[in-house]
Amino acid sequence: MGREVVEIGIEEVLDYGLELQIILEVMAPKQPNTGLFVGLNKGHVVTKKELAPRPSDRKGKSSKRDHFVKSIIREVAGFAPYEKRITELLKVGKDKRALKVAKRKLGTHKRAKKKREEMSSALRKMRSGGVGEKKKS
Predict the structure, then answer these.
(1) pLDDT band for position 60 (50/70/90)?
(2) pTM for the full model?
(3) Please, are residues 123 and 91 in contact by the beta-carbon 8 Å criterion?
(4) According to the 3-state scheme, what is the secondary structure of the chain?
(5) C-alpha–C-alpha distance, residues 126 and 96, integer Å
(6) How buried is residue 25: exposed, middle or buried, by Cβ count under 10 Å (0-12/13-18/19+)?
(7) Which residues contact 73 (CB under 8 A, 6 or more apart)?
(8) What is the pLDDT of residues 10-25, one digit of tens each?
(9) Whole-angstrom distance, CA of residue 80 vs CA of residue 70
(10) Distances (CA, A) of 131 to 18, 36, 46
(11) C-alpha distances in angstroms, 49 versus 30, 46, 52, 68?
């Protein structure tokens, strides 16, 4: 009556996942409701209404104008002192310390990771821009 524990490797798990995906693709699409209150396709017959897109659907997407304004502000104002410190830490190669500094300033791990990535991309951009200027001289 005891349960049997079976050890399986990652290959079997991946194969099983693939089988599930194939089964889901092969399954028939849902049939329309019949109008009856019993059975597999029970329910009142209705026509789907096309809804206008909700404002909340585009939450988080920045428009071209917003992006342009932010880039101009960044160009004029430069980086905040804590952002400069993060770039210095990234230059030295202390990614983890940079993450800790960002987390302490921004409050959450997710924001800190995003800021670290932003600063490292800015650093990459500065390095590639600096190389281009040296070649022109």
Answers:
(1) confident
(2) 0.55
(3) yes
(4) CCCCCCCCCHHHHHHHHHHHHHHHHHCCCCCCCCCCCCCCCCCCCCCCCCCCCCHHHHCCCCCHHHHHHHHHHHHHHCCCHHHHHHHHHHHHCCHHHHHHHHHHHHCCHHHHHHHHHHHHHHHHHHHHHHHHHHHHC
(5) 21
(6) exposed
(7) none
(8) 555 555 555 655 565 6
(9) 14
(10) 47, 73, 64
(11) 18, 9, 10, 37
Structural tokens at position 54: 């909700």
- What radius of gyration, in Å, describes the C-alpha atoms of the chain? 27
The amino acid that residue 133 corresponds to is E
Quickly tell me which residue has 């800190």 as its tokens: 112
